[in-house]
Every structure is written in C-alpha cells, then in structure tokens.
Amino acid sequence: MVPIHIHTNTVCLLAGAVEACQRNIKFNGSVACSKVESHLADARVYMLTNPKEFDVVDLDPYGSPSVFLDSAVQSVVDGGMLMCTATDMAVLCGANGEVCYSKYGSYPLRGKYCHEMALRILLACIESHANRYKRYIVPVLSVQMDFYVRVFVRIYTSASAMKNTPLKLSYVYQCTGCDAFHLQPIGRTVSKNTSVRYLPGFAPVVPQECSHCQKKFNMGGPIWSAPIHDQEWVTNILSDVKSMKDRYPAYDRISAVLTTISEELPDVPLFLSLHNLCATLKCTSPSAVIFRSAVINAGYRISGTHVNPLGLKSDAPMEVIWDIMRCWVKNHPVKAQPADQPGSVILAKEPVLQANFARAVASLSKAQAKKVARFLPNPERHWGPKLRAGRQITSKHISLLGEEKVNGCLSHQDSELDAKRQKIEKLEDAPAES
C-alpha cells in the first residue's frame, strides 16, 4: 500500500514541517523509516506528477481542501481511497454563500441541516473533479463532528458509470417561512429494452409559493443526494473497533459516532428538526419517542442522525409531517398568532391524516433501547475551534479560549512588548559610533 498524507496550512513550501515529519518517522522506529517518506514540494504538483500512484490520499488542510481536489482525484489508484477534511464550516454552512459557490461549485442553505448539507456539498465537489477524468466516487463514510467535516470515498474509473452522476445530485428548495425542504434531482433515466437513456430531471418539484405556508423558496445546491455511507462498511468497522477496544484511547467517541451512523436511514438526504417544527407552530414539543411513533404508525420510516441530537431523518413527505403536528396541536392548543404567520397558515388547514401517537415498538433505536451513548459531552470547557497560527490574542477571544488563558496570554504579550521597548530605548541611548 502506498499512502500519501497531505497536511498543510498553506500551499507554500515549509521546510520546518518536513523536518518535523522526518523526526516523527525516526521516532516511530525502523519499520516507519523503511516505509514512510517526507517530501519538500507543492502537494498539488507532487500528486499531479504521480497519477494513479497512491492507494490512500489524506487531505487535511487548514481550511478549504478545494485547491487540492483536482490533483488528488488523479493521484489515487483505481479503487483507492481519498480521505478529505474541510474545516471552513462557516463557508460550507451558508455564512458566505458566494464564497462556497466559488470554492465548491454549490450554494449552501442556512437550515438546521446545514452541517449535513456541508458534507453533501463536499462530496458533490469531489465527484465533479473526478468526472473530469472519467472517474467517479463511492462514499464509504461521511462524518460531521466537532468543527469540521470529513469524508472517506473510493475512487473508480469508468466512462459509462460516470454517466450516473446526475442521478446522484440534486438541488434543494427550502421554504423561507416554514423551512420545509424539497429535492430536485438533476437527472433521470428511462429504460427501453436493453438500452438506458439519460435525461434531465422533471421540474419543478415545488410551486412558486410553499403549499404549506404560502411563502417563497430559496434554492441551494447542487448537493450529493445519494447515500453518504456504506452501511455494511460502517458496521464492520464498528465491530472491529469494539473487538480492539483497549487499543483506541478515543474508543468512546469513535464507537458513539459509528453507532449513530449505523442507525441512520441511508437513502434520506438531510433531516428535520423537531424543535424547529414546533418553533414554526409556536407550540410545545412532543417527545422524540412520541413523534417517531406517529411517523411509524403512519407507515413511514424514521431515524436519528449523527449530525444533530435533535435531528430526525424520515421518508415521510412534509404533508404527513405537518398533519402529525396539526393533530398534536389539537391536543395541545397554542395561543392565537397573526394570520399571516407561517404557523397560523399551516394550522388553519385541517389534517388529512389522523395521527396515531401510540408508542411504536421501533420508536427507539437499538442503541437507545440499550442506552448506548451516542452523543458525548465536550471534552473540556470553552470547547471550540482554536486560533489560526500567528494570530494575536485579544480580549475578544475569551469565548474561544477562556478568560484565564486569554489573560495569561495578554500579560505575556505585554511583557514581550515591554522587553522590546526597553531594548529599543537602550539602542537609542547608546552613543553613536564614530
């Protein structure tokens, strides 16, 4: 196996980083010395000059990996794995939509599902780069945790299989009033005898105004709307991790994430937020078990998501979801709201489906039933993204680092400034040489 790990803060050449790599290689013994090499080169050029050379490529830059993707998809062997991390979450989650489009070719939406959308934007971007070289990706694991997204994809070469890419991508319409979302597939196929024709997707999937609350839609994407995990692969990895529990210092975290992913509905892109539904209607929230039971009793599937403890994936259409919430509000009345509010418009309609809130057997996942931890607390106080190297620490960073650490850094910076000032004064007072 020939792996390559690209871990760079900038594209520039850093000799110090290579020296650190060499020290780490020696520290890991003779086996590492015989198998691991470090190079002082531009990562993009190095990958481009070694096409289909590496079994595994790991991109882990500080910020966006977009500048490395074109060369990375060319450097992986057929069936090899590309692992990619993106830490520019503000961009991917919709804070700067135009920047996200320029880097990833997709426009993000600021919904409750924005972190999963970030994963799907990254996958769509990798697929786009791979398609230029008659290649395509197969995701095996896609994770959002802490303050970054990380994807593991296999890369294959096939001009015919590459034609299926439009079937795996969709645009997203999100209502500006009730946050209901709908997916618009880019392509479709029509089979006739033994031939398959590739055609544009049928449109539009939504009217000009939301059928639930009469508000307009925002459009985002395209995103990867096919499965983002290989469930069999995830199950096998989870089993292996459990069998070697003592070898993983972060076992609790790894098993929690993999357990939650193993229970996700694989064919349902994005997710609902129960609290967001209730915020729209201005009503009290049913428990997750009660809501899950109502969806299951209506004949649909539902699961959690590893991205958000309050997120729920379901194949139930929004008409069914709102009918369930209307039935809930009938038993738990809300205060009168202005008639033009999205919640008022939704509640003004009578439910077509009469929801059954009786406890369903499958309302708890296997992990929940066994009380297996799925979402762990933060490992320390003030848990958050750290500062970029070289940034000067000021009082505004208290929320990131904590008051004690910031005050300590500020006093250290003040002492350094005093020392520099004294040195300058000594130089100025020193007699000039003749």
UniProtKB/TrEMBL annotation:
The keyword Phosphoprotein does not apply. Its EC number is 2.1.1.216. Residues 415-434 are annotated as: Disordered. One of its GO terms (cellular component) is nucleus. It holds the Pfam family TRM. Dimethylates a single guanine residue at position 26 of most tRNAs using S-adenosyl-L-methionine as donor of the methyl groups. This is tRNA (guanine(26)-N(2))-dimethyltransferase. The lineage of its organism: Eukaryota, Viridiplantae, Streptophyta, Embryophyta, Tracheophyta.
